[in-house]
Each structure stands twice: as C-alpha cells, then as structure tokens.
Specification:
The structure holds two protein chains of two kinds. Chain A contains six helices and 29 strands. In chain A, strands 22, 23, 24, 25, 26, 27 and 28 form a seven-stranded antiparallel β-sheet that branches. Chain B has an eight-stranded antiparallel β-barrel, surrounded by four helices. The two termini of chain B are 26 Å apart. Chain B is α+β, with helices and mostly antiparallel strands. Helix content of chain B is 21%, strand content 25%. The chains are: A mainly beta, B alpha+beta. Chains A and B meet through α5 and β27 of A and α2, α3, α6 and α7 of B.
Chain lengths: 452, 382
C-alpha cells in the first residue's frame, strides 16, 4: 500500500504531494521553488521540495532524510563522524557532561517515558542487496545491520515528521557552537553555478556567493540589459561569469561588453554590494530598486502578524507588535535529544519559564489563534496544546489552547517585553537561548549576522 | 580623574596610544607647551566608546576590599549542594539551579556572600549627600555612591585584569557595532573650559578605525548615526567643561546597548551622567547613575550561560539577591523595593567624526525630532 502511495506521490509531483489530505494550505504551485542538481540515488529515494529547507532527500514513503553531523561541544563531541553510527536503541539514563559546568552522570528526567535515539531517529536501513551509488554508501551498525549513508554520514528519518515534505525533525539553518548537536536534513545540491551558494534563513533560501556575500538584483535590469554602469557598477559589482560558463535552467548570461559576461538568474543580472558590511547581508535591499535574491521565499507568516523594528534589527511580532520567540532546547545526553517540541519532555521548558505551568503561561505566553484562524502553510500551523503539560492536547481536552506554531513548535511572546520593539526575551535561557531558552524570530539581524 | 595604575586595574593605555594619532577634529589644541586652546571645528567634536566596564577599586591582594576572600560560583555551589556520590538528577540539580538563576526568589541561598568591605570606591556622589553607607573616592572625596561595586567587587569575574566579565564585556564594546555608543559635544568654544555645551548620545553604525593590528582604536574615524534601529538610544543633555573635564547634567534614563555574545541586551542607567577628561583625540572618565537592577542582571545572564558565569565564579543566584539587597534608588511605587542601584563605569572613547547620512537639513531635522521625542520626563524621586 505504501509503495503504491509513493508511486502516486511521485505521479502527482512533489509539490502537489505537500498538500495531500492535509488541513493546511500547501505552498502555492505558482511560488518559485529551488532547482537542484539531479544525482543518482538508491532505489526508492526521492527528492521533495520543502518550504524552509528547499529540496531534501526523502524515503519512498516521503519521510525526510537526516544526518547527525559531529558537533563540538564544551567538553567533547556529539553527533556522528563519517562512517560511524552512534544512534542506537538503548534508552540513555545519564547526562554525558558535554556542557560545562555540569559533570556527567546526572540522571536524565522522565526515564519512564524517555525514548531511545532510534525511537526518535529510525535508521535508514539498507536492504540486503543494496549497493552504493554516487554519494550514497552503506555503513555497518554495531548490531551488523546495514545503514545508508550520504557522504559517509549515517542517515535517519525523524519520528516527528508526519507528512511528505515535513522537516520538523531538524533544519539546515545555521546553528551555533553551543547549540545541541542537531540533526540536519540532507538534499541534493542547489542548481547554481560554481561560485554560488544557497543558505536557509527565516526569509527564505538566500542566494549568495561562495564567500557568503549576498547577491542582489536591480529592478531596472532585464535579462538582456543592465542599467547599472560606471559609478553604479562600482557600488553594485556585477558577478562575472568565467569564459567557459554556459546557460542552464534559470541561469543565463548577459554580455555587458565584449567578452565580459554577467550571471543572470531568473531574468535578472546579479550583483554584490560593495557597502555590505557582513556576510548574508540584507543591507543592499534598503536601497530603492535593489533586492536580495532567494531561490525560494519562506512561506508568508499568518495574517495579522506584524514586523517590528527593535534595537537590534527587525523581528516578527504578533498583531499587537510584541516580539515572537521560538523555544530551543536540547538535552545533555550523548544522544542530544530535543526537548523543544510538544512531544518531548517539558521539564526543561517549565524550569526555565517559571517553574510551574501557571507561571509559564504568564511569562512565556502562547500566541493564541482566533477561532477562525487556521494554518497558513506547512511551517505556520495552529496546534492544540494542553497548557498544563505543554504537550499536544488530546481530542477530548476541553481546556486545550489553540496556539500558533512554527515548525510544529509553539511560539511565544515574553512577559518582560512591554512595548512593540522590545526584545528582552532574546537569548533568555541557558546558552543564550540555544539549549533551553528563547530565540527571537529575526527578519533582519544586521547586528548579529548569521542568526536569521 | 587621574588614577594610579597601582590601584586601578584599568584598561590599556588608550589615551596614550591616541595621543600619537592625528589631532583630527580640532584645528589645534592646548598642550603643555602652552598653545592656547582653540575650539573644535564648528564647535563640534565626537567620540565613540571603545571601553566600558563596571568600576572596581582593587588593591593588589584584595585584602582591603575583600578581607573574607572571593565569592564562590555556580560550579562550587553545585558541588557543595549536590556532592559527587549522591543521587543527582537533572531536575533536582541543574534545572533547579537554573530556574533559581532565572527566577530568583527572596529565600537565602545558603551561601555566605562577600560584599566589598573597604571604604574606597571609584564613582560619583550621585545624591549630593554623604552618609555612612557611602564610599570615599581614592582622592578623598566623600559620598561616593556605588553599590554595584559593593555587590560585584569580591567576585573575581568582575576584577581586572583577567576576570571573565572584565575581559569579554569590555572587549565587546569595541568589537560589536551593536555597542557603538557615541558622545557628541556641540557648542564647544574650548575643550579646556566652556560653561555650557550640548551633549548628544547616539549609536554609530560602523566599525572602529584601528591600526594595522586591528586591536588598537585610532582617532579620526567616522561613524554614521544609527537612526533606524538606534533611534531609541538617542538622548541629549547639557554639560560644562572645566579644566578639560566634561561634566554633564543628569539624563533621566539612558539605554546602553551592550551585547557580549550575540544577545541584544541593554543596560538602563537612570540619572545618567558623564564625567570625562577630554582631549582632541579621545576621552576618558566615568559613566555614573543608577542601574536598573532587572536590566543589570538580565544583561549579565542573557549573555553569559552558567558555563561563562562559572568561569568568573559568578553565582547569578547570589548576585541577584545582593543586587536587590543593595539597591538604593527608585523604589517601586507598590512594593517599595528599590529598583535601581548606584553605579559607576570606567569608560574610554576615541575621537570620531559623527556623520549624518547626507548631512542634509532634512536629516538633521529628523534627528532633532527623535531627540525631542526621546527626552524623558524628570526622574521620579529616588
């Protein structure tokens, strides 16, 4: 049945598959999505287009595929090195002591319901007859079973992903050195010429050079003509193509002068901005007529949400202008399990937001959805939460709250924010909000480049 | 204003360095050779902050100010509360401590807290009074109000030259454009003496001008005013210059953007005033006023996780209680608990050309409107 369903998914195309039988609004088919470089994959492996992370590899059943890269923490490493699976079915009971100042050996919470690593991250097993192909290889687990790997990194799916195209388990967004060793979805390389790169941000998949310089387009340009010359071209520097470059897909070439060719993407010549002061900058978009370039935009946030200017940049805010936050949490076990999702243990969140559910509802306030409001995309949904436990509410729970969620996790406002533009909750919690605390949803981060 | 290097674990000798830089921004200046003082061009001179940290009076062996030693930090307290060999759970140990750090209660934490016991402190007499609770300035001036020093002076992370806060919070001032506080003085007839000048605080938008090493800030750089995200930071007051020392009238409330580790945190200083020794190439002195207790504490713990606090032996739990206990101004209208604590910060600034984008009359008018909108009502009774 599953195989037949998968065939149907492929027949419908991955974009349509995003909306199959779901109560959410799928990404519009008209929205531009990121093209990718096709590559050989094992039988059954497909590529799905996701809202936030672009094209990802998925199983035949549509489950997004993740890797668990090695990540340096304060007292050692977690994650997996190439060729060495470290996620198994043993339920860990003690901390690993990877984050100082705490020693290892502290008993983890809620052991009676604690999942094992593989409960949450089922390995992507390889059939007995499976053969390596392209970047895909097979590693042997310690029990002798065979697991698919990509670029030698062992591969998994996420128990949290429910629908084809979900990336609830993890994100390709950049994360800091004190963050947990997150799982990261993998996908084919974006279809960009050498010298370009694409990075996931809160605004979409940002096109940059390989040096992380932002790429811009000019309203007054066309695919065959540039209106930026002389002084303009000193400030906005055309991205030149090498002699052997050839047009492909959405990428074409503009001959600015004999023998000097400029890259063109989706009908617009590309530039970098000499006045950008940092990587992944959005500063050039402040200049009228100029815009950053995204291979695909992030889905629009719910109607009624607002954009607010703060002391440190621009944030997403609720209808009253109050800054919105996501909660980030990972435990200190060797498995580095998440504690930020409603399915996860809530003891970390409760400890940080006030110590009990009532206090937490006042300090980190759920963003309740109106009765008539519904999810607007795969990323922005309305979920029902049991405010006492912090878990998803059961269908019969009359006290359930309908709250806004981003990536299946509730979003919050922060009680100490008194007026629009306040961002006092950002970095609240352990490790500047990276391991047990709040992160603002930044839309411009000029003072903290790279946190978008 | 002059401080003895022997007793002041101060910043690197910035002014010495700046003295060899160009005298940009002024046509000439008085020096020991007796050149008469000449006003800055257009009576205007700007400075950008390069160093800022809480003023801590230190003796070499700390015996004067901390006769009972230094305070313990999270690591020491964790081991004392939850000894190795006992049953330790995340919920009852780590999360309990972290909860108490972020939501400090009024109950005693069970550890003796060593406040500063010496008589001397840097700072100003903020309230114009001399009381038994005040410190004496090392130059003998009585009535110095600096209860932040009383709270943090015996915590090694706040002490120079190698306390973790002392190093990193100050380093961030120069490193992070978010922290780019600027002081512009206008209406200046002379950098040596002027009865009345106008002092405006802005945030700059640009990196600092440094020498080839990248670490030594030079005079003569330029900074654009941040009127987009920094408009809430713009303040204006008046002041006077006497013997090259600028003393400002208090500003009811100043927000100092102070990001250490990528967290957009702030300090709120009420009754904010500056006392700066000016030169054509830089300024040095103190910021003083009453720090909002909540903002003071949150600026610390938002930037610094338990790990960082441990490196400085800074128990957030203990310090938060001390700050509240020692707070000495701005009582809460309902609870009566003081919400602000007297303080002084060592500050250094480098001369800089402050640039309005375009410098147009329209832009200047826009800034004037921001200044007017940001002027606060007179401070409530301390």
């Amino acid at each position: 049945v599953l195989r037949e369903a998968a065939k149907n998914l492929r027949r419908l195309g991955s974009l349509a598959a995003l909306g199959l039988g779901l109560s959410i609004v799928p990404a519009s088919a008209e929205e531009l999505t990121e093209a990718y470089i096709e590559e050989p994959t094992p039988p059954g492996i497909q590529v799905l287009l996701t809202e936030l992370d672009g094209p990802v590899f998925a199983t035949e059943q549509g489950k997004t595929i993740y890797e668990w890269p090695s990540h340096k923490l304060r007292n050692g490493y977690s994650g997996e090195t190439q060729g060495n699976p470290a996620c198994y079915d043993e339920v860990l009971t003690e901390t690993a002591g990877l984050m100082s100042p705490y020693p290892p050996g502290i008993i983890l919470p809620e052991l009676d319901s604690r999942p094992s690593c593989t409960d949450l991250w089922p390995p992507l097993y390889a059939d007995d007859g499976a053969e390596p192909v392209g970047e895909w290889s097979i590693v042997e687990r310690k029990d002798g079973t065979r697991q698919w790997a990509y670029d030698e990194q062992p591969l998994y799916t996420s128990a949290k992903d429910r629908q084809p195209g979900d990336v609830i388990g993890g994100s390709t967004r950049r994360y800091g050195g004190d963050s947990p060793a997150w799982r990261v979805p993998i996908g084919p390389a974006p279809l960009v010429p050498p010298g370009f790169a694409v990075r996931s941000t809160s605004n979409g998949r940002l096109l940059t050079t390989e040096k992380n310089e932002s790429v811009y387009v000019f309203d007054e340009d066309t695919a065959v003509s540039s209106n930026c010359h002389e002084a303009c071209a000193s400030t906005w520097q055309p991205i030149l193509a090498p002699q052997l470059a050839r047009a492909k897909g959405e990428w074409t070439l503009l001959e600015r002068s004999p023998g000097v060719r400029q890259w063109v993407y989706r009908g617009k010549p590309l530039y970098t901005y000499a006045n950008d002061t940092r990587s992944w900058s959005l500063q050039g978009s402040d200049v009228p007529g100029w815009s950053n370039v995204y291979t695909q935009k992030a889905p629009p946030w719910p109607e009624g949400f607002t954009v607010q200017s703060t002391i440190a940049g621009t944030v997403l805010a609720d209808a009253n202008g109050m800054t919105l936050y996501t909660y980030r949490c990972g435990d200190d076990s060797a498995d580095q399990l998440s504690c930020e999702h409603p399915d996860d243990t809530q003891v970390y969140r409760i400890a940080m937001c006030g110590g009990d559910a009532d206090t937490c509802r006042k300090t980190w306030k759920y963003v309740e959805a109106g009765d008539a409001e519904a999810g607007t995309s795969r990323s922005w949904q309305v979920i029902e939460i049991d405010p006492d436990s912090g878990h998803f509410a059961s269908p019969e729970d009359e006290d359930a709250l309908r709250v806004w969620a981003y990536r299946d996790r509730p979003i919050y406002t922060y009680a100490a924010d008194e007026q629009p533009g306040d961002v006092h909750g950002a970095g609240t919690g352990e490790w500047r909000g990276q391991r047990n605390g709040l992160k603002a949803i930044w839309l411009r981060d000029d003072y903290m480049g790279g946190t978008l | 204003m002059k401080r003895s290097p022997a007793t002041k674990a101060g910043f690197p000798a910035l002014l010495t360095t700046l003295a060899v830089a160009t005298g940009a921004g002024v046509m000439a200046h008085a020096d020991d050779a007796g050149i008469p003082p000449i006003a800055p061009v257009d009576g205007r001179i700007g400075y950008v902050m390069t160093d800022l940290f809480w003023a801590v009076y230190q003796t070499d062996d700390a015996s004067e100010e901390c006769p009972n030693g230094f305070n313990s930090g999270p690591r020491e307290q964790f081991e004392a509360l939850y000894p190795e060999g006992t049953r330790r759970t995340v919920l009852d140990t780590q999360l309990r401590q972290e909860h108490e750090t972020w939501h400090p209660g009024s109950k005693a934490e069970g550890f003796e807290f060593h406040e500063v016991e010496g008589e001397k402190s840097w700072g100003l007499n903020l309230d114009g009074e001399v009381s038994n609770n005040d410190f004496v300035h090392p130059d003998g001036t009585p009535g110095i109000d600096n209860e932040v020093y009383r709270a943090v002076g015996c915590i090694i992370g706040f002490r120079g030259p190698d306390g973790v806060e002392y190093i990193f919070q100050n380093k961030a001032i120069a490193d992070r454009p978010y922290n780019r506080t600027m002081v512009e003085i206008t209406g200046v007839d002379s950098l040596e003496n002027d009865d009345e000048v106008t002092v405006t605080l802005y945030r700059g938008r640009d990196r600092l001008l440094t020498d080839a090493s990248g670490s030594t800030v030079m005079a003569g750089g330029s900074q654009r005013i941040d009127t987009r995200w920094g408009r809430r930071l713009i303040r204006q007051t008046t002041g006077r210059i006497e013997d090259s020392v600028l003393t400002t009238e208090p500003i009811p409330e100043v927000v100092i953007p102070w990001m250490n580790l990528n967290v957009p945190s702030i300090q709120i200083i009420r009754d904010f005033r500056l006392q700066l020794e000016l030169s054509p190439t830089g300024a040095e002195g103190i910021v003083a006023g009453y720090a909002d207790v909540e903002s003071y504490y949150k600026q610390l713990i938002r930037n610094d996780s338990t790990h960082h606090l441990s490196n400085g032996q800074i128990s957030g739990i203990s310090l938060s209680k001390a700050l509240r206990r020692l707070a000495d101004a701005y009582p809460h209208p309902e609870t009566g608990e003081n919400t602000a604590i007297s303080t002084a910060l060592d500050v250094r600034l480098a001369q800089v050309f402050i640039v309005n984008d375009g410098g147009t009359p329209v832009e200047q008018e826009r800034i004037s409107q921001i200044i007017e909108a940001n002027q606060q009502e007179p401070a409530e009774t301390r």
